[in-house]
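Listing 4. Sequential folding, example run.
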Amino acid sequence: MAAPVRLDHRLSLVYDLYDECDLAADIGTDHAHLPAALLQRGRCQHMILTDISPDALNNARSEIIRCRLSDRADLRLGDGLAPLRDDECCNMISITGMGGRSIRDILLSGTGKLHGAGLILSAHTDWYLIRQALNEIGYTPDREEPCFHAGRYYLVLRARPGTRKMTERELRLGGPLFMSESPVLLPFLARRREILSVQLSGLVSSTEPDPEKAALLRDDMLYLEQKIHQLQHKEGSM
């Protein structure tokens, strides 16, 4: 029997947000640790693993073979959602380990391959672009969970088809994020506020300041401060 697959903090969070399902796809699978764990533990019965890199797909194949999961995993070479067949209906699709711009482009170019699948998305950067793409394709996040791994913060979003579009503030700062019960939510929000503060300082000292953008940054900083104070009060009263 193959040794159980071990997941880091970020991939463990992605795993936890997966629904139990018959068919799922992991896009940009790389080392295949996530799909191997999903199959090994019975969260998913069958999975499609894709990657644009032949070397990465070979690494994934080695992991699937090591875990003796070849009969339940279909490995395909290709970019984004392109390797999924038009008539293939996945219950869940995960896209992680990329920048927000890349995930945005994958979603917009492959919308016809989604077929209402639940989406789990994790980016290093540009969460605004991901939320904006979700708005465009008719999806709404129902979970936004932060985590801290290898010295940096990550955000994992789960989204489903929905009719409610996110507001501009939700696009920038998040919606379900503020309902998260993650132990790192407070430091995550504090770090986001710090980043906005740095952006504001750079904008104010610029030779071409943008008063409208500066006002928006100040408004977002105030909103985050209010949320941080609410969470601190909640923790103090428990």
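-- end of first protein; second protein begins --
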Amino acid sequence: MKSMRVLIVRIGAMGDVLHAMPAVAALRVQHPEWFIGWAIEPRWSDLLPIVGDPNDVQQLGGRYFKKPLVDRWYRVPASEWKRSPFARKTQLGITELRRVLREEQFDICVDMQGALKSAVVGRMAKAPVFAGPAAPREKIARWLYTLPVELKATHVVEQGCELLSAAVGETLTPTRVRLPMEDADQIWAREAVAGERFCLISAGGGWGAKLWPAERFGAVAAALGRAGVRSVVNASPGGSPEAERVAAASEGFARVLPCSVGQLIPLIRQASLVIGGDTGPLHLAAVLEKPVVGIYGPTDPARNGPYGTRQRVLRDESSTTSHKRLKEPEAGMLRIGVEEVAAAALEMLG
């Protein structure tokens, strides 16, 4: 087979990008000579190992390559465009993205998001093969694919492998990814925790129905603190009201640590445990093979749970799967108590 040029479209968010990466890593292992591009929101680009120094070495699947996971990423500031769809800056940005993608002359494009916006971005590339899920999250996206793929696997990581396998005509299995770390970020993380044993708590989430109350996270931090393990609550660089509420309810055993995506990677590497809902930092911990305690409600852990790491996932039997962007926490999720989460965390901490 000739060397191919493949475009991955997975614009966001953090957890979804991480779920797509094991399939792309499998493709890189089988074809280190292929060109792989990725269309993504700029804020998540720190997750992607890209080609830099030709002497850089990436470990994938137990083998070493001088090519990291992705050769190039393409800027898709979809959130910014959505806020100002008719602005001249938006129109110029879309036009430039279309020009760049078409100039790359991709042979294959794979929409690993299944949304209308990702399908539109993928269609811009005009690749002869444009693959996407036959039952995408937004049904209208299916009509933009030249190759709709029926997905039978349960977990989204394995679905990603099914989709990419169909696109390239080969069998791919999920492959471990080694995430990039800048020296400055590693130094920052070491100085931020100063060798302290800690649990990282992530209280955020994509929408309200997935959010376990911040005060309960704080009570868990207090229980861990009394057992001798302090907690760090991650927040975006601009801060987080949820994180502040966790710290306020922790009896002084938790502190908020704002950080970038690049800084979060080495910070989680140093954590003894990560606790959170179905959110990016929990999935980042799973990729880094750190133990996790997941608190689930409207999303099904069989499909969206942490993948490939030691874990305890808590979900009340009354919870029903729904991806409606409701503002209030799902009722079943509220039946998960502080004592249950703290006990799971202490067990994982051993």
